[in-house]
Each structure stands twice: as C-alpha cells, then as structure tokens.
Amino acid sequence: MTTAGAELDQHYAVAPGDVERYAANGFVKLRGVLSPDLVAHYEPEITAQVIRLNSQHLPLAERDTYSRAFLQVVNLWRHSDVVRDFVFSRRLAGMAAQLLGVPAVRLYHDQALYKEAGGGFTPWHVDQHYWPLSTDRTVTAWVPLQDTPAELGPLTFAAGSHRSGYGQTLEISDESEAQLDAFVAAGGFPIDDSPYALGDVSFHTGWTIHRAPGNRGDIPRRVMTIIYMDAAIEVAQPTNRFQHADWAAFLDSRPAGSVASGPLNPMLWSAD
C-alpha cells in the first residue's frame, strides 16, 4: 500500500464537540483532515477523469444557471482504480459514520464538482430533494483539491437550516436561489462561507441549505464529493423525476422498503 493509501485508511476520531456542532448546524468544517501531499497525489487522476468523462461542452454564456455552476461527473470510482481508492477511504467513511451516529455506512455515489474559471454561482438548495431514501441519515463529504479562498467559490452553509423543513420540494434553480435566500435572511440563519485550505473537508446533511458563489479566480475550483448513507437506510418510493433518475442510476431500481444495498452501494465502513 502506498503512503497516500495508508493515510486514507487511518482512523480519524471526530471530536465530540464537532459531532455536536454537526448535529446542531447541519454541517461541520474540519481542518487538516487530509495531508496536502495526499490530496496532491490524487488530484491529477480525479481531474483527468473529469476531463475525460465530462459531457458539457457549451460555452458558459450559452448555459443555464445550473450548468454554469459547475461541471458535474458522477461515480468516478467506476472508471479509475486510483479514484476508487480515494472514494473508498475508510478514514472519510469512518468520519461519516461518527457524524451520523450509525455503526456502518454505504456509498450512495461520488461526484466531482468543478467550477470553471468564470463559472457562475451555485443556487441555494438542499441535496436530499434528489434522493429516494427513507431517512435523513445521509452526509456528504466535500473535499477541495486546492486551497479554496472566497474568490474560487467555497461551499456556503446556512447553519441550523436542516431542521427547518423548508425548501425540500425545490429543485436547484433560480427559483430555489430566490426563495431560499429570502427564507435564510428572514430566519436569521448564521452563514458560514469561510475558505478552505488544502486538506480541509466539510460534511453536511442532506437537508442543509447551502450554496456557493461564482468562481472569480483564474483557475477551476476542483472539488471531489462523496455521499454516504446509513448502511441500514431503505429505498423510498421516488416522489419526483430526479428521484426516479437516481433510483435507476444509483440504487439498482430496488423496491421501496428494501435496504439500499445494491451493487453500486458498497459498505465503506463498519464498526464490526
């Protein structure tokens, strides 16, 4: 095993205070989770796969708001053994289990989110609108592959918004940006738009309201995300067209009420 691979599998004990902050705020940013050398080791292969698999080739000016926000490529782990090693990290998966308070987690899917230089803002939204899953026991690890100061578009959270129940029927769009922006402002939710240093990782729940500003820098904002779910979570009956798509793409079209344990949902960490 390489030095980088060994680090990916080393246990990381999430401090009790950070677990409490995650539960209270719906997210937590943890500093120095991964060494800069480790991220630098995996970034070229992740970027190469994004370039190879990206299907968005329209100029920015000809795209809609969502398409201007980022290039999105899912399940890179299926295309590269190097990326698979990163996505299957026991270190990150163990942290997800600690934050969720569950004994084991499975992979829902991974996705690279590359915000091009000059790329637009990511509207306020919640992720779990898209997921046909039975509970809220989900968490996304957001892993920047470079330092991410304000000008590159760091992920921005409305702290405590996961408990509001608001916006759960909104798809990401100009409409979600307007409605959720007004809701967040009126509700006085604290905003965390702090920068990320290389090696920092944030984790957020499926119902946390979040967004990202546009990329005002001259390099892409390269981010790899991994979405984890409680290993006991069940498939729910899809309620919108996006959930129907996810049901087929990531959950093997398994019947509602069955455990989400299809071939694309391997166990990534278990306390057993």
From TrEMBL:
One Pfam family in the UniProt entry: PhyH
Domain of life from the UniProt record: Bacteria
GO molecular function, one term: dioxygenase activity
Family matches, as Gene3D superfamilies: q2cbj1_9rhob like domain
Alphabetic keyword roster: Dioxygenase, Oxidoreductase
Name by which UniProt lists this protein: Phytanoyl-CoA dioxygenase family protein
Organism: Micromonospora sicca
